[in-house]
Every structure is written in structure tokens, then in C-alpha cells.
Specification:
2 copies of one chain form a homodimer. Chain A is about 45% helix and about 10% strand. Chain A has a 5-stranded parallel β-sheet. A two-stranded parallel ribbon of chain A has the order 1-2. In chain A, α2 packs antiparallel against α11 and α6 packs parallel to α7.
Chain lengths: ~300, ~300
């Protein structure tokens, strides 16, 4: 899932116009990206860059095989998502593996997060949305709390499963976010391996940040264990505004990840040269250099076709 | 081996003073780096940034367990290295896997490179230098020639072995350089695996470039197959001046690689925080941001010790 238009743009000092956002999303879809997080239904005072999410969504062409996604964090946000339509409504609960971070970020404890889940499940059910996913932030470590033990992550997944089961639902999709870029390939392998061993049918998705240069190696380690769902941001947009360090790198870069996959013989269905075009557009729109490498080094197609 | 002071600084628009180079090398060694390529004995008109290599070397303190290395490309360069002393004199032959690139870069064919090897072997022997290594540039692909088939790399290693054997020497160290950043983890695994299978006693070293964002993943793939020798450049300095693309990323970044190793439980013997200090010094000295990530995202030690 391409998260640049949401996770990336929300921290940029320059707010893109609705037109510009639509151009970027269209370029991504034209390159073959089939799932894009196009905005978030959050308080426009808190995140002004996302204030036009409804307008962006209304401007997007529905396209066969393409899923638009959006983020919401409270009931009002979900209502807005339902009202605007066109985005896939996913019944995904969220939690955070760091007590300190969840308090700073959402003013709630981990216990409180889980205590609120039944209300969310009811809310989703009332809207006819299947509830079968959970996201976990800071699953690999936290700048405010330090290392996150693997047993804690496993325990929180168990807890989410149990809440879902109590309400007749089943956890099928678990997303793990390396929100502050702590993960290393060995840790990825141990955690993914432990989850696969315990719950072989649970589909994992990773949200990786390149804060300390390991995002591509982490993605490789996860792919070697069969993980094939990743969030990524065009040009490497993004970073965590709440992580307490400025200037750090953002999300794993979409076109670099696609490049690595294609070079390894993994068909992504994406036109890499067109995707690099989208990365250059993103760079032009935000008005500063982005960390992506392939957009500077160039793809290999021009060296192979002559 | 840290190659920043040579491979990195040679392409910088600002030439560091001898004092500055010595400060940088001292900072690297103080952080625990035990092998540093400190300069090159090449034509000062062609590479003005390396004109003071003798002066740099004379200023370096000999330190127990620390090896200083330098590069030479012709007999005159070797003479200078022998004359100045203090650098380890390594009998390493060089070749290039791309016919087009070796012609552009050295005005020689691959055949001519191999034809000149006996003279080099004699020259090294006369100087009392053991000849047991070969370096290969563009071993993973070439901007001027395209893909480099694995069989070609294997064939060139065979050819080097045969030349060495004809002169009573044995190839013990093979360096493979991804000069233009074409390698991907799958290719690394196939090539390294094939070499290990054929010549289990041959020690490999990789010189990786992050031109297309895969350097860390490539290093991981190689380490998984037991490769434990890498060139790397502090801050991610470097890039190939002859590769035909500007603005592309340089060598795999030393402190990012050390960070990944240490986080995975691989003891490097290096003080990462001190190494990040050296990276910040490098950035200050060259006068522009370097691509290294850990120097911006920060190490994890401060989050763990409180």
C-alpha cells in the first residue's frame, strides 16, 4: 500500500493543493500501484495538510482493481469516511506496543486502547464493515520506552484476537509498524517467524521506516519469510512527527522496494520507470529532495534495452 | 575496510586539507575501525584531492591492530607506496568484468588487463610483497554494458587463479565491487553461493554501492552466506565518478552497516556513537549533507541507558 499521500504529506511544511494531491495519486495509480492511502479524516486543526481529504477523494476516478484507503482515528473520522464513500472501509482495530508512546500520542493507556475496542467493533458492525484486522504501532522499539520485547507483541496480538473472538470476529490481518525505525533484520525474522509458527493463517503486513538505514534489509528479511504486504511511500516521503527526532528518514521508499523486488524476479505489476516519474513529481510538489535512491541513480531499463 | 578517506573524498568538490584528512582518519580509528584506506598514489593532476597522500600517511600514528591501506594503479604509484611506508602493501591484482567500462576507465581491454598481470606479479615479488588477491570492478552490472552474467565473473576469477598459479601464487582473497550499484540480494546470493561451492577456501570481500538503495540488503544477503569482509564509507561518502550518473548515492554507509550488525548481535568491535561522531565530522568537512541514516536518526544507546 502506497502511504505517501497520507503518511508522507502530513508532515511536509508545504501543504499540497487538492489538485496536486490528485495528480500525485493519479501518477501512482497510472504506474500500477493498486492500493493507495489517499488521506486521513482527522481534525483539520491538528493536521491541516489533510483538511481536504474529502475533496481529494471526490476527485479520484474509481478504477477497476484499485483500492483507495484513508485513515481515521475516532468515530467522527469514520463517519466522514462513510459519508464520502469511494474509500474501502476496513474494520481494523489499532493498538500501540509502547505504553509511553501511546500516552503521548493518544492520551490513552494500552489497557484503555483495548477497553475501547468493543465500541469500535460495534461501530463497524453497525456500518456493515467486517472487523478482521489490527494494527500495532511501535512494535519493534520506541524512542520513549526503549526495546519492545517480542513476547509483548505476541501478547498484544493474543489480546486483540481474544477481544475480536468475544464479539464473533476473527483476526485475519495483523499490521506491525516500525514507527520509529528500530527494527533490524534478525528481529524481523524472529518476530515474523514466531507469529507464523503460532498463527500460520494470520496475514502480516509491515510498515517500515528507514530511520536508521535498515528498511530495505528489513523488507528483504520479511519477504524471505513469505511476508508480501508492505506499506511504502513514494520517494521515501514521511517520518514520524511524534518520534522526537527531526531530519530522520521516512518510510521505506516505494520505488526502491519495487526496484529490489523486480531485480530479484518478484513481479510487482508496477511500471518502475513510471513510478520513478511519480517520485520525481512528489519531489517537485514538496519542494525539497526526497531520500529515494532509484530516482537519483536511475533504473536499469535504459541500460538493458539498447 | 573504511574507504571514505579515499573512495569518498576523491570525488568531493571541496578538497580537504591534510590536517582535516588526518582528523577524520583519527576519528575513525578512535571509534574502533581497524582498517582504513587513507589515500591513493595516483596522478595528482588526474585526482588532485589525493595529491597529499604521502603527507597524510606521514602524519598518521602507527597503532597496534590498525592497518592503513592505500590504492595504486600503476608502477609509479606502487613505488610511492613503498617509499612512504606505513601502509600495508597488498599484492592484489585488479580486473574489470565489463569490457566497455575497463576501456573507458583505463584504456585497456580485459585481455590486456590479464596480459599485464605477470608483470605486476613480478613487480610485487621483487618488492617482497605476497601476491594472493584479486579485485574485480563492475562485477554485478555496468551502466555501459548492461548485465554481467555470473559465468563471466566465475570465468574471470578462474583466469586470475590460473595466472597466479603459473607464477607460483595462489588466489586467497577475491574482492567483488558493485561499482555502479547494480547488485540485488538474489544476485549476491547466487554469485556468492556459486563461488563458495566452487572454491570453499576463497575469502570474499564485497564493495557495495547504494546507487539504487539496495546496499544494506545486499550486505545482509552476503552476511547470511558468511561473507564478513566489506568496504564501507563513513556517512555514505562516495559514488563513482566514471559511472555516468550524477547525484547517485555512494558506498554503503559504514555507520549504518555497523548499526545493523550490532543490532543483529554481530560484534564489530566498533563504538557506534563514536563512529557517528566521525560521520558528523565527515559531513562538516565536505560541507554538504551525507546520505548516512543513523547519523540523522540517532543510535539507540541513549534510549536504552536511561
Amino acid at each position: 500500500m502506497e502511504v505517501g499521500p497520507r503518511d508522507g504529506l502530513q508532515i511536509e511544511s508545504r501543504t499540497l493543493t487538492t489538485d496536486e494531491k490528485v495528480r500525485l495519486i493519479d501518477a501512482l495509480v497510472a504506474a500500477g500501484v493498486r492500493e493507495v492511502e489517499v488521506g486521513s479524516f482527522v481534525n483539520p486543526k491538528a493536521v491541516p495538510a489533510m483538511a481536504d481529504t474529502e475533496d481529494v477523494i471526490k476527485r479520484l476516478e474509481p478504477r477497476e482493481g484499485v483500492t483507495y484507503r484513508a485513515l481515521w482515528l475516532n468515530p467522527k473520522g469514520l463517519e466522514r469516511a462513510i459519508a464520502v464513500g469511494r474509500v474501502r472501509l476496513v474494520g481494523r482495530l489499532t493498538c500501540t506496543a509502547s505504553e509511553t508512546f501511546v500516552k503521548r500520542n493518544t492520551n490513552r493507556s494500552i489497557d484503555r486502547t483495548f477497553a475501547e475496542m468493543p465500541e469500535w467493533i460495534t461501530r463497524y458492525k453497525e456500518a456493515g464493515i467486517k472487523v478482521n484486522g489490527m494494527g500495532m504501532m511501535a512494535a519493534f522499539g520506541c524512542n520513549f520506552e526503549g526495546d519492545i520485547p517480542q513476547e509483548k507483541v505476541i501478547g498484544l496480538i493474543e489480546r486483540g484476537m481474544s477481544v475480536l473472538a468475544d464479539h464473533g470476529c476473527k483476526l485475519e490481518h495483523q499490521d506491525l509498524a516500525d514507527t520509529m525505525g528500530w527494527a533490524n533484520p534478525r528481529q524481523i525474522r524472529r518476530l515474523v517467524g514466531a507469529i507464523h509458527e503460532r498463527w500460520p493463517d494470520l496475514t502480516l503486513k509491515l510498515h517500515l521506516h528507514d530511520t536508521r538505514g535498515t528498511a530495505m534489509a528489513n523488507a528483504l528479511a520479511a519477504m524471505e519469510l513469505g511476508v508480501c504486504n508492505f506499506d511504502a511511500a513514494i520517494g521515501g516521503l514521511g517520518g514520524c512527527p511524534f518520534a522526537g527526532h527531526k531530519g530522520a528518514a521516512g518510510n521505506v521508499c516505494t520505488e526502491d522496494l519495487v526496484y529490489m523486488c523486480e531485480e530479484m524476479g518478484i513481479d510487482t505489476g508496477i511500471d518502475l520507470d513510471a513510478l520513478v516519474g511519480a517520485a520525481k513529481l512528489a519531489e517537485e510538489l514538496v519542494g525539497h529532495p526526497l531520500p529515494g535512491k532509484v530516482m537519483k541513480g536511475g533504473t536499469l531499463s535504459r541500460f538493458r534495452h539498447h
